[in-house]
Amino acid sequence: MGIQPSTDLLLEGVPVAAERRSFRILKTHAPIFSGTVLLIFVLAGIFGPLVAPHDPVRIDLQHNLQPPLLFGGNWTYPLGTDSLGRDVLSRMLGGARVSFLVAFTVVFISGSIGLLVAVVSGYVGGVVDAVLMRLTDATLAFPLILLAIVLASIFGASTKNVIIILAAGGWASYARVIRSEVLSLKNHEFVSMSIVMGGGRVWIIGRHIIPNVLSSLVVLATLQVGAAILSEGSLSFLGIGVPPPNPSWGGMLANGSDYLTVAWWLAVFPGVALSLTVLASNLMGDWLRSHSDPTGMR
Fold first, then answer.
1. Can you name the residues that pair with 87 across neighbouring β-strands?
2. Rounded to the nearest 5°, which phi and psi values hold at 58?
3. Which of 36, 164, 169, 278 has the fewest CB atoms within 10 Å of its CB?
4. Lowest-confidence pick of 37-41, 57-61, 234-238
5. pTM confidence score
6. Integer distance in angstroms from the first to the last C-alpha of the chain?
């Protein structure tokens, strides 16, 4: 007599299969969605201020708190105006430039510092490794946003200070992750063969170590773009980030929070832009991480 398959096991396979199909669909469409969103906002940041319908800092009290076009407004101010009569669309475009300028600069600086620390710490080892990793642990133990608030309060609010502060606190995450890969790579046979053939440390690091950790660096950088934009928005919301009247999404959220009941668009539009950008950055980073991991799910 043959063994009949259990009905429970058959039924248990249905949700598992459905879950796997949903996961594959999400993984397939995640880079399309995130890439499209990021491309739109990057293009808005690059070309938006050049085609903005109004000066984002010009005050026009005669047209303050104009509603968006679809809610009783007009084509002159498609997304409405704020309490000082400044065009919300123009300020959104200007805020996109500020957000991505800060994010890309912070990621480049912090990624470069983190890569340098990780390579030196992991490959040289010994006392150098111990000192650099204790410094890295101390930086990671202190919350980045709290560190940024303290430093911004001391040095003042400016775009340059925001970049320096976020880069000074963001390099540690790169160093910790990439160091582990360096420790693994330096024990590979191709590194040992290079040492036997007389290769120096600098040559081995440039020829073998750095090229093999670039994929991880790109994944981390993609994830950190959203984190940098969110941190800049948080500092600007608190009034210690990009100083007014320069447009920033965080500053627009802070100004709009006082008018939620009478002018919801002041906070909703920059809030949606900020949320979509961070979500798209995280989705793209997750997709890159799973795509570059040969042992992960495909």
1. 81
2. -75, 130
3. 36
4. 234-238
5. 0.82
6. 40
